[in-house]
């Protein structure tokens, strides 16, 4: 029943699709003392309750080796919700209803006996609150621990087989694996323990409204799809720029780097949504089939390509961050040129860049259309000024869509300039979009996989990027540096200049 949607007709108005409600369940969070729980998961659950989207009956059980008593933990979470919730100030009545359903269990994921203890806490809470026993396990822990937790959950009978009257599902956070081999290994373990329908690989980019809108924009309008191909598009730029540096995450980041942190997951998903064919239906597996097909069409990157088409760099000062090795060669920036070998995209370069410590926070996809075939407007100087049309899907922070086109500059002479037509979510819808984690948690409770990565797609994304990781890891030369607060290294500009193109300015 995954992805089931209820069609609601509102009188003479347009038909809207509403997803089915979430079923009563117990949410068990592993790694509950970490940042993810405090900044994202718990504020998201609180807001879902506030919006009336949580099931009537639910409970949250936090587990880790160092979690405090439930009372103390609720106080800590209240602080986090006041700080990180998208809605402020905290609604006391909602908070009370939420806090009453929070429990804790001190447990070590590596100690099999502790799962018996956890099982007791879960059963006690379920009985007390009249819950039916549906369970959502959220693994907010590093991927290296997933297999241990999964095996122990199974050994302690905390996972139900598929087809049971009650369900159990497991949500894991990206990165799913460290490279292709470890992702495959992890997937094999998962497959031994649970069914693919029970695993939810979370990539929070897929929960963003603007990312979800890519498919609606492409397939809910008739004017864009006919020109969404090699005949009209010159090239595509995908950017994920962050002004933040690695902050307090130096140790994690130094072992991860930009490609694993955001390209293999977030940007490969965004690329797939922008370039895939129309799915047969809007159901989860039809969409995931098309994304996988697109990822399979990405041209393999060879070692020789890494030297010419990939730029890796580090922001100056990165190696002084806490937890980062003084001799680190971990890239904090990458720019690369990719190709899609299929009928729609043959010959259209896709430039992807991502980095930390840059001039602005800016995630967007820009579709550059081809230049006009012939200029009618007299002088060489005017013709030179005519820029190609660019359609920009602004994912964040200024969520919207912009179209650049040429326009006569008012006045007597025939002078042409570029103007931009802008749609902004904030102005049009007058309310803050949901946080990605709200949507993802709700969908996991509904059993809808549409916004979660599937095994084949995830492994394919690793497979495409592996040669780059291997080349970097076998290299010895120091990486080029870029100034913090800049647009990135000069080498990345050169990558496009060589092709007669330029990056869109950040911000
Ligand atoms: C995470 C990365 O997945 O995404 C972080 O691990 C990054 O390094 C973050 O900062 C960016 O997310 P967002 O939603 O702020 O673009």
Task: Please describe what this structure looks like.
The protein has 507 residues and is of the alpha/beta class. 37% of the residues lie in helices and 21% in strands. The strands form three sheets. It has a nine-stranded mixed sheet with strand order 16-15-14-13-9-12-11-10-17, sandwiched between helices. A six-stranded parallel sheet has the order 5-4-3-6-7-8, sandwiched between helices. Helix 1 (35-50) packs across helix 2, helix 1 (35-50) crosses helix 14 and helix 6 (180-193) runs antiparallel to helix 15 (455-474). The chain is globular. Bound molecules: 6-O-phosphono-beta-D-glucopyranose. The site of 6-O-phosphono-beta-D-glucopyranose has 4 residues, from helix 9.
Which short descriptors sum up this protein?
507 residues; alpha/beta; nine-stranded mixed sheet; six-stranded parallel sheet; 16 helices; globular; disordered N terminus; binds 6-O-phosphono-beta-D-glucopyranose
Q: What is the number of strand segments?
A: 17
Number of helices: 16
Estimate the global geometry from the Cα principal axes: globular
- How large is the radius of gyration? 24 Å
What is the helix fraction of residues, given as a range? 25-40%
Largest sheet: 9 strands, mixed
Give the overall average pLDDT. Answer: 93
Taking strands numbered 1, 2, ... along the chain, how are they ordered across the largest sheet?
Answer: 16-15-14-13-9-12-11-10-17
* Class by SSE composition: alpha/beta
Q: How far from one another are the termini?
A: 42 Å
Q: Pick out the low-confidence regions.
A: 1-17
- Give every kind of bound small molecule, once each: 6-O-phosphono-beta-D-glucopyranose
């Amino acid at each position: 029943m995954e992805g089931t949607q209820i069609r609601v007709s509102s009188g003479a108005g347009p038909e809207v699709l509403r997803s089915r409600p979430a079923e009563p369940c117990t949410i068990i969070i592993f790694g509950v003392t970490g940042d993810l729980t405090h900044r994202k998961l718990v504020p998201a659950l609180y807001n879902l309750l506030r919006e009336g989207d949580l099931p009537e009956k639910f409970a949250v059980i936090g587990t880790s080796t160092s979690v405090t008593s439930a009372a103390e933990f609720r106080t800590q979470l209240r602080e986090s919700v006041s700080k990180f919730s998208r809605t402020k100030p905290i609604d006391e009545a909602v908070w009370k209803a939420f806090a009453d359903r929070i429990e804790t269990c001190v447990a070590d994921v590596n100690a099999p006996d502790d799962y018996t203890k956890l099982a007791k806490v879960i059963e006690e809470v379920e009985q007390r609150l009249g819950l039916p026993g549906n369970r959502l396990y959220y693994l907010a822990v590093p991927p290296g621990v997933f297999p241990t937790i999964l095996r122990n959950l199974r050994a302690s009978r905390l996972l139900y087989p598929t087809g049971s009257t009650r369900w159990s599902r497991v949500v894991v956070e990206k990165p799913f694996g460290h490279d292709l081999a470890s992702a495959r290994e992890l997937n094999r373990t998962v497959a031994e323990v649970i069914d693919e329908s029970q695993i939810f690989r979370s990539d929070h980019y897929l929960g963003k409204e603007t990312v979800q809108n890519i498919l609606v924009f492409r397939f809910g309008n008739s004017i864009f799809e006919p020109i969404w191909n090699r005949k009209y598009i010159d090239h595509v730029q995908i950017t994920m720029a962050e002004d933040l540096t690695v902050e307090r995450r130096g140790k994690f980041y130094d072992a991860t780097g930009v490609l694993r942190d955001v390209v293999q997951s977030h940007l490969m998903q965004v690329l797939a949504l922008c370039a895939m064919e129309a799915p047969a239906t809007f159901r989860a597996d039809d969409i995931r089939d098309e994304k996988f097909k697109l990822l399979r069409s990405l041209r393999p990157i060879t070692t020789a390509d890494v030297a010419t088409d990939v730029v890796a760099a580090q922001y100056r000062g990165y190696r002084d961050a806490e937890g980062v090795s003084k001799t680190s060669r971990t890239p904090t920036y990458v720019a690369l040129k990719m190709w899609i070998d299929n009928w729609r995209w043959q010959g259209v370069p896709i430039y992807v860049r991502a980095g930390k410590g840059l001039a602005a926070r800016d995630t967007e996809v820009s579709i550059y259309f081809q230049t006009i075939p012939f200029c009618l407007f007299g002088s060489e100087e005017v013709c030179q000024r005519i820029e190609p049309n660019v359609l920009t899907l602004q994912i964040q922070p200024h969520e919207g869509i912009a179209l650049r086109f040429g326009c006569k500059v008012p006045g007597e002479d025939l002078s042409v300039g570029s103007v931009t037509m802008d749609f902004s979510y904030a102005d049009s819808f007058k309310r803050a979009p949901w946080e990605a984690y709200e949507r993802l948690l709700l969908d996991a409770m509904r059993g809808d996989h549409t916004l979660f990565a599937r095994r084949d797609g995830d492994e394919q994304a690793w497979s495409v990027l592996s040669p780059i990781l291997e080349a970097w890891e076998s290299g010895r030369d120091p990486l080029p540096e870029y100034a913090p607060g800049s647009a990135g290294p000069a080498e990345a500009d050169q990558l496009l200049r060589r092709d007669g193109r330029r990056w869109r300015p950040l911000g």
